[in-house]
């Protein structure tokens, strides 16, 4: 069956598989995520533009948020979108959203789309850390670029770089609760490489802190070169694991189960048999420790750094 976007569900699956097959020689794991994000960008833009041409809709801006916004889209990850509009009065957007999403759902993409005004985004980001971190990772896709520029400038000035210690404290509380959940012995043997301790979520927490405190997304710029190199290798390994988990499961799958350990170890060119699984899991634990060292270090810098008033009084 040929869908509205000139691509079938099987065709999209074939794109994912073909990219995975060429990845070992043509892409790093991070580049593979970026390439796949670029593919989805083209599909989403086409769906949005076709929707705009078929319904009467106000001027809006389409943003990618979350992992998709970071161009770190794993093969079966959620595709999170935000429709941004300037006025506090909400326009009639459901017809545009439906026309955009239906062909994407037909392709088997797990897509969601929220809609907010610029002022709503700023208000929600002040009180909701999930909205705040989603906006940190937001990226322009289509529509009125000026709306995105205005949001980004106001968000950076009024929200992102304000109350950084309070933001870090909120993230730390989230880390503690999440790690408690994944301390179960079952997760130690079959770890969740996204949400578990030292997983990809912890890396993002370190990045968010850097964006808020140091006003840069170049996390490597505040680490020593050897630390940066070790962390990058650890991340490349975790990204490779996650991509293989998704591709072998043909769905969103972040838990490295025993069955999948057995399948992934030879794909990632570890030794045959049990030895290869042990080598892979040893590398996983070393990599996750590096990620947690990074995340906890960033949190501690903010949470335990003396305030300017305290510094002044001690001199």
Question: Could you characterize the architecture of this molecule?
Answer:
α5 crosses α6, α10 (200-214) runs parallel beside α13 and α12 crosses α13 (273-303). β2 (79-85), α4 and β3 (111-117) form a beta-alpha-beta unit. This protein has helices at residues 9-26, 29-54, 66-69, 94-106, 118-127, 129-136, 145-160, 164-181, 185-189, 200-214, 225-249, 258-267, 273-303, 308-314; strands at 61-65, 79-85, 111-117, 139-143. The chain is globular. The protein contains 14 helices and 4 strands. By secondary structure, it is an alpha+beta fold. The chain has a 4-stranded mixed sheet, sandwiched between helices. The protein has 2 domains: 9-160, Beta Polymerase, domain 2, CATH 3.30.460; 164-314, Four Helix Bundle (Hemerythrin (Met), subunit A).
């Amino acid at each position: 069956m040929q869908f509205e976007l000139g691509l079938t569900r099987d065709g999209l699956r074939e794109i994912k598989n073909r990219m995975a097959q060429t990845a070992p020689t043509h892409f790093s794991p991070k580049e593979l995520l970026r390439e796949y994000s670029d593919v989805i960008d083209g599909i989403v833009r086409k769906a949005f533009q076709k929707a705009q041409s078929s319904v009467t809709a106000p001027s809006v801006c389409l943003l990618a948020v979350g992992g998709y916004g970071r161009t770190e889209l794993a093969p079966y990850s959620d595709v999170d979108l935000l429709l941004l509009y300037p006025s506090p009065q909400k326009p009639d957007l459901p017809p545009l959203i439906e026309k955009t999403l239906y062909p994407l759902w037909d392709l088997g993409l797990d897509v969601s789309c929220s809609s907010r005004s610029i002022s709503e985004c700023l208000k929600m980001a002040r009180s909701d850390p999930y909205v705040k971190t989603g906006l940190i990772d937001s990226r322009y896709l289509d529509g009125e670029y000026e709306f995105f520029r205005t949001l980004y400038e106001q968000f950076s000035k009024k929200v992102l770089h304000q109350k950084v210690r309070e933001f870090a404290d909120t993230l730390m509380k989230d880390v503690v609760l999440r790690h408690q959940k994944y301390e179960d012995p079952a997760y130690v043997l079959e770890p969740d490489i996204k949400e578990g301790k030292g997983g990809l979520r912890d890396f993002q927490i370190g990045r968010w802190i850097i964006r808020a405190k140091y006003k840069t997304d170049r996390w490597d710029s505040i680490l020593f070169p050897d630390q940066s190199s070790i962390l990058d290798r650890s991340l490349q390994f975790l990204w490779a694991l996650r991509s293989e988990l998704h591709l072998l499961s043909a769905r969103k799958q972040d838990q490295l189960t025993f069955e999948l350990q057995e399948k992934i170890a030879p794909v990632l060119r570890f030794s045959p048999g049990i030895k290869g699984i042990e080598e892979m899991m040893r590398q996983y634990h070393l990599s996750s420790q590096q990620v947690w060292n990074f995340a906890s270090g960033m949190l501690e810098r903010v949470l335990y750094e003396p305030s300017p008033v305290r510094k002044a009084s001690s001199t």
